[in-house]
Amino acid sequence: MVRGYPRALWHPAAVANSPSGDSATDRLVRVLETFTPTRTVQTAADIGRRAGLPSSTAHRLVGELVEAGLLDRDGEGRIRVGVRLWELATRSSLPLRVRQAALPAMERVQARVREHTQLAILEQDEALFLERLSSPDAGANITRIAGRLPLHASSSGLVLLAFADPEVQERVLSRPLRRLTAHTPTDPAAVRRKLAEVRRLGHAIAPGFIEEISTGVAVPVRDRGGRAMAALSAVLPRDAAPGLALEELHRAALEVERALAEPR
Amino acid sequence: MVRGYPRALWHPAAVANSPSGDSATDRLVRVLETFTPTRTVQTAADIGRRAGLPSSTAHRLVGELVEAGLLDRDGEGRIRVGVRLWELATRSSLPLRVRQAALPAMERVQARVREHTQLAILEQDEALFLERLSSPDAGANITRIAGRLPLHASSSGLVLLAFADPEVQERVLSRPLRRLTAHTPTDPAAVRRKLAEVRRLGHAIAPGFIEEISTGVAVPVRDRGGRAMAALSAVLPRDAAPGLALEELHRAALEVERALAEPR
DNA sequence: AGATAGATTCCCAATCAATGGGAACCGCCC
DNA sequence: GGGCGGTTCCCATTGATTGGGAATCTATCT
Asked: Taking the model in full, what pTM does it have?
């Protein structure tokens, strides 16, 4: 076995502590961000490529994270997000508290309406879904727990935006509004009108905004100041009448507001 | 304003990249571990003390984590676990998959038994609780989502241990067994007998092991190899008859086994 | 069976970002 | 106004981190 390597080939052009000004924390986050709801297992080399890290660095970092339990190495080679990370992130987080407060009410909605019932919050100018209950017989639904949807395109997003700080509304409406279907409103003026309607009615109806075949209906869970802390929503078949769902969602929202108002 | 400091007082005794051989990853994990189910908000100085970091280092690390969104700085000063960390940890983790597979069955148990219904997995030689459903009228319950209980003391833990690798059983039984109440079995031989009973009956009953006033009953969710992937459990008042709960839990476990066996 | 490709582990010199003691600053309370 | 605790800023020092490269391992193809 040959040990070492020809000294002449050593090329110190780029070596050091993180030559590009990213901290260890940044790199760690980039590694975690390579995992998505649809890409849950990857090789260490995959992670490195996607996080923009040299292969050997990626392998070392992944190894450390596995050691710490934040990532898990399954049978052979494949890496997934570790149970320990879930535990650390869940046991003291805001999403858990909101979810716990909302779950009983969501279950009642779910039992009566028998369609997808969802809970979302406003996070980084998108709707982040904290919980989703589904009957086996419910229709299509693109949302996932811990998944995101644009604010202007989803019924949940529309109520979150309608009852958010004006500053958030301006920021969101000043950026390009992505079109998901032919019915997604992408004109800022149209979205503004929609938001006014949501404020007037107290709920949002989004027929075909996300998927042609379904209609989202959502109501806000509001704090004492009137801002939306969360949105409760249901996903109905495109042609279904939204009356029952809206009624149940409104009732549930009241219940959640009370639960969240309690000291703990 | 005086800038700088007397050069003579500079004391290079301990300066550098992490003088104690802990990696950047270790430190980040230690920071995250300072949060517990009961301690959800802390100051940056608190975190530093508990993680064993010098104040200035702790403040910088916390600042970076806040910047990255893994931690949140609320109104003034207090730090909590960030929504973003929850999102990253949840969206592709094993606990979510197990939970999703089990939730419908758990809801039915919950509706019929009307007591606490729980889901746990084996993690690092403890029972880690992934989900918990509770009626408002249900009794006391010490468990929390993302909380842990010892394997020998909880009904969930006993089924997880009874249907685990023998190697795990040996390891757990070779360590001191913590006593939580007067009824907690702390003698290895007694626990061994209990485990044999659990294997024979296919369920565990733990009267007063955790809290004097309640009885835990649990059944395993088993894989094709017979090992317990998870435990479904209910917490009943100490004197309640466990028959109905066990029947419902067994039915639910079958359903969860089928759901987890499906490709995805 | 041999070749090829990709993932992973190991090695090690060079370095620079992270480190931590100290000091100043900022509120808050007694 | 003085004490206390949290936070921010400063900066010389240095060792942990870094990343090319080579060796090793593991599939998959021909």
From this structure: 0.90
